TrEMBL record:
Name of protein: Histone deacetylase family protein
Histone deacetylase domain segment(s): 48-332
Taxonomic superkingdom: Bacteria
Ranges that cross the membrane: none
Entry keyword set: Hydrolase, Metal-binding, Zinc
A molecular function GO annotation: histone deacetylase activity
Signal peptide: none
UniProt similarity note: Belongs to the histone deacetylase family.
Names of the cofactor(s): Zn(2+)
High-level lineage: Bacteria, Pseudomonadati, Pseudomonadota, Alphaproteobacteria, Sphingomonadales
GO BP annotations listed: epigenetic regulation of gene expression
SUPFAM superfamilies: Arginase/deacetylase (SSF52768)
Amino acid sequence: MRTFFDPRQLAHAPLQELHNGGFIDYSETPRRAEAIGRVLPGLELPANHGEAPILAVHDAGYIDFLRTGPARWAAAGRPGDVMGYIWPIVGRRRLKLDRIDALAGQYSLDASTPLTADTWDAAYWSAQSVLSATHAVLGGDRAAFALCRPPGHHAGADYLGGYCYLNTAAIAAQAARKAGAKRVAILDIDYHHGNGTQDIFWDRGDVFYASLHADPATDYPFFWGHADEVGEGEGTGTTLNLPLPQGATLEAFRAAQATALDAIARFGPDLLVLSFGADTWDGDPISDFKLATVDYATLARDIAARGWPTVIAMEGGYAVDALGANVTSLLSGFGQLV
Ligand code: OKP
Ligand code: ZN
């Protein structure tokens, strides 16, 4: 299986995040990508597909904020990384604001996703990695893996959040649509609900979003991922949320995944994007499911058995020392490790 990663993805390295009323070391560290890279000896540099496939998903003003926000923050005399601390309440009229403090609130979902001077470049190359994997699959490969880091599934068309800046799974799905795939499905098996991906395709009938995740009653992102969120308009019925209680083991997770795969089969995609998080692993420091390393091979075999050409985009997973084995296990389930 071809695997893609660019070392420029490592430069993004916020020091701290707001957590439970204090600051802690940032969980989404470059060491995550290094750990995965070590078990993928065939890692390839992505081609540069440019900004157009990013702008096909994301708002131009938001992209400008990602690119210029850190310099504007510094120019306003703010030390440290850009972090929103005031938010327009949902439903208020859209204001055209220029102050960086206002923009940071407008363009962010939470206060635990700092924007640094290196973030844009890292997120840009994370997107290029998933685009290269997408083109490998569109070109006939059965599956390809993008070592996306920073991850993507919490980022919406015009907001960052949950360690995510550019929604790599959405960028892949949209690029596949543009290249001729009529219907694309996204299966998100990260521990957390992919609110950004859901939001981007909420009213679209051509992209199916199915997610298995910890119940938002107990876990981030809290406001999204409930079972009654099914999409709207032309997208009614092409969003499927399967929340699971904390403590879930392979049995419950695999059954829920089968439900998602059956729904995706009824939808009939030309291509699947798999948002893969290894934060469902038993020892993950910020999550509460109980999957074992070998379980990822089982889950991957169940997915591969459906036969859809599959782009795999890395999402979360914060037990750095276990990441290499967990990713290796997942890819082995597709039957053709590097
Ligand atoms: C990203 B991905 C405050 C709690 C916020 C954010 C979790 C983001 C997970 N520190 N935690 O889905 O793995
Ligand atoms: Zn996660």
